Amino acid sequence: MPFDPKSYENYEFFTVTTLSKGVAHVQYTNPKTLNAYTNQNWKDYGEILTRLDKEDDILVIVISSGVPKSFSSGLNMKTAMEMSKNTPKDDKERYNLYHDYIKDFQDACTVPARINKPTIGILNGINYGLALDLASAYSIRIGVEGARFSIAEVNIGISADMGSLQRMPRITNNASKLMQHGLLGDVFDLKEAVEIGYLSTTVKSVEEGIKLAGEWGHKMTQFQRWAITGTKKHIQDILNGTTHEQGLTDIREHNAENFTRGTKL
Q1: pLDDT tens-place string over residues 99-125
Q2: Helix or strand or coil: residue 62?
Q3: Where would I find the H helices in the chain?
Q4: Residue 185, by phi and psi: left (phi above 0), alpha (psi -120 to 50) or beta?
Q5: Are strands 140-144 and 126-128 parallel, antiparallel or unpaired?
Q6: Rounded CA separation 265/249 (Å)
Q7: Count of alpha carbons within 13 angstroms of residue 11, beta-carbon side
Q8: 222 φ/ψ angles, rounded to the nearest 5 degrees
Q9: Going by C-beta distance under 8 Å and a sequence separation of 6 or more, which residues neighbour residue 213?
Q10: How confident is the model over 173-212, as pLDDT tens digits?
Q11: Which residue, of 7, 53, 187, 236, has the fewest CB within 10 Å?
Q12: Three-class SS state of 227
C-alpha cells in the first residue's frame, strides 16, 4: 500500500509527514514538558520508526523537535516516580520488573540503529539524558545553534542505560571528554559536540536543519535502494562491534546477492 501519513495521526505529540518522495519526517512536539518522554511516548516512538522501516515508499527518516527550546529534556520524571510506587516487595520480582522495563525501553530507543533505513536527527536546544540515548542511534546528527548536551543521568543517581554509554564511545573521538561528561553529568555545547565528532554539521535553526536533512534524504533516494540500506547496515554493524573480517564477508555476500539479481549499478 502507498505510504499514508494519516495512518500515523493517532500518536499523541508525534506528527509524521514527508519532506519529499521517499523522505519521511517525524516530529515530536510536547512543549509543556520540553519534549520529555513518558512510557507511552517512547513506546510510540519505537513503533512509529518500526512502521516507517516497513513502508515501501520510504527510504530515509528525518527526526526533529517541534519545541524551539528542546529536542528532549529526557525521561518524564513523573513517569519514573509512578513506576517506583508500584514495585513488588520481593527482591527477585522487583529485579525482574526493572530488568524487563529497561529492556523494553532500550529496544524502543535503539530502533534507529536496527532498522534498514538511515535516520537523520536534528538536535536543537536541550539534549539531556534520554535525548542523547535517542540521538546516538541515528545514522546522522545535525546540531542547531544554541544546542546543549548532557549525559545527565548521574545527576539523578543512576547510570545512563538507554544506549548513550554504549554508542558514544564508538561515534566520538575523545574518550577522556566522554568520561568527563558521563561522570560529571555536566553540559557541553555545540562547538564541543562537533569537535568530538558527535555531529556532522551545524545549522542556525531547526527549519534550516530540516531543509538540509531533506536535501540529503532526497539525494539518498536517487541511489539504488539496496546500496543505501546496505551501506547503512554495514557501517552500523561495525559500530556495533562486528569485526573487520566479518564485515568484509557480510558486504561481499550482500553485493554478490544483489549483483546476481541483476540490479543495475
Answers
A1: 999 999 999 999 999 999 999 999 999
A2: strand
A3: 39-53, 77-85, 91-109, 111-114, 130-135, 164-171, 175-184, 190-195, 206-221, 225-239, 244-260
A4: left
A5: unpaired
A6: 20
A7: 26
A8: -80, -10
A9: 19, 62, 64, 120, 122, 140, 142
A10: 999 999 999 999 999 999 999 999 999 999 999 999 999 9
A11: 7
A12: helix
Characterize the bridge pairing of strands 119-123 and 140-144. Answer: parallel
pTM tops 0.90, yes or no: yes
The answer to whether the CB of 132 falls within 8 A of the CB of 168 is: yes
* Residue 96: all three cell numbers together: 525482574
Q: Which CATH class is domain 5-222?
A: alpha beta
What is the spatial distance between Cα 113 and Cα 215, in angstroms, rounded to a whole number? 21
In angstroms, rounded to a whole number, what is the distance separating the alpha carbons of residues 15 and 17? 7
What is the rounded distance in angstroms from the CA atom of residue 36 to the CA atom of residue 71? 9
Q: How far is C-alpha 216 from the chain's CA centre?
A: 17
Distant-in-sequence, close-in-space partners of 210: CB < 8 Å, separation ≥ 6: 19, 25, 62, 64, 122
Measure the CA–CA gap between 59 and 25, rounded to whole angstroms.
11
**What residue segments make up the domains of the chain, in order of their start?**
5-222, 223-264
Tell which residue, 132, 129, 179, has the closest CA to residue 157: 129
- Whose cell is 541483476? That residue is 262
